[in-house]
Amino acid sequence: MKTNLMLGIPESLTFAGAAAAAALIHQGTLDLGQNTNAKILADRVALINSRNTYEEAKLTLAERQALVDSIMGVGREFITNGRDNLKPHLGYQYSKTWDVTGMVGSIAVPDQLVFLHPMLDSYNAYYGAHRAHEVASLNLTAARADELSTQLMTALTAVNEQETEVSRLKRIRDVKAEKLLRRLRGLRDELGQVLDPLDTLWMAFGFNMPGADQTPESPANVSAVVIGPGTAALRWDAAARAEYYRVWKRVIGVDAEPVAVGSRADIDFNLENLPAASTIEIYVSAVNNGGESQLSEKITITTH
Q1: What is the CA radius of gyration of the chain?
Q2: Taking the model in full, what pTM does it have?
Q3: Which of 281, 286, 285, 272 is nearest to 299 (CA)?
Q4: What are the residue ranges spanned by the domains of the chain?
Q5: Phi and psi torsions of 99, nearest 5°
Q6: Can you spell out the DSSP letters for 97-125?
Q7: Residue pair 47/180 in contact by the 8 Å Cβ criterion
Q8: Residue 294 above 80 pLDDT?
Q9: What's the pLDDT band for 127 if we cut at 50, 70, 90?
């Protein structure tokens, strides 16, 4: 029963669309003044627009993060090639001589930004002080190290700025979502002043009737046994709040969807006139004046 309206954004938008359509039809006769079709639609559109802007900002953030990752890959390749070309000068194993390149404690190439970026700056400084060790044909130069460091810092700054923007837009989206929920709660309260608790117009607006029972739970532990030609005996556990049950079947290869075949207040049912040599899916639902449960988990039988 939709009474507290604790809905996610997709469900809120669907609910509001149905409520707005019903308000357009009934607001005159019900004298809805505070929560009209136009007001519901305005809040719904505002949420759609803010949600879309937020999602687009997330895509931009992902693109900017991908650029950072790409530049880091190029930076790692630069440092790897630089290290290998410096080994004849600084040694083939780590020593303190390597510290001047930023490779402190190891000559492994880092894959984390916090280590990679300052290492590019160190290679820039090293090549600037040792021009003879630059390899222009491989683009292992101070200028290239500086270029990569600048590109990486620019891309990282863009990521940080976009993260801030995404956070801002998320807050806006959440405010619009809460405003739409307040609108729907207001509509519910306004309808409560003009509709009887069991008036079926509640359902036209997407609400369950406040005076109706809560929808029952789905029946559990459904079982079926073929007891004769074209007949199966069904049984299931009693479902909370159920007044009666409906039995559904789907003959594989014949029915596109389950078909209701009977109802019963008890928790057993004989399903008859089943086609021979067929595979049949069986479901049970529970019903009360508040509505009908979801179908139970399917069970499958094969007739002889």
Answers
A1: 34
A2: 0.69
A3: 281
A4: 1-212, 223-302
A5: -60, -30
A6: GGGGGT--S--PPP-SHHHHHHHHHHHHH
A7: yes
A8: yes
A9: very high
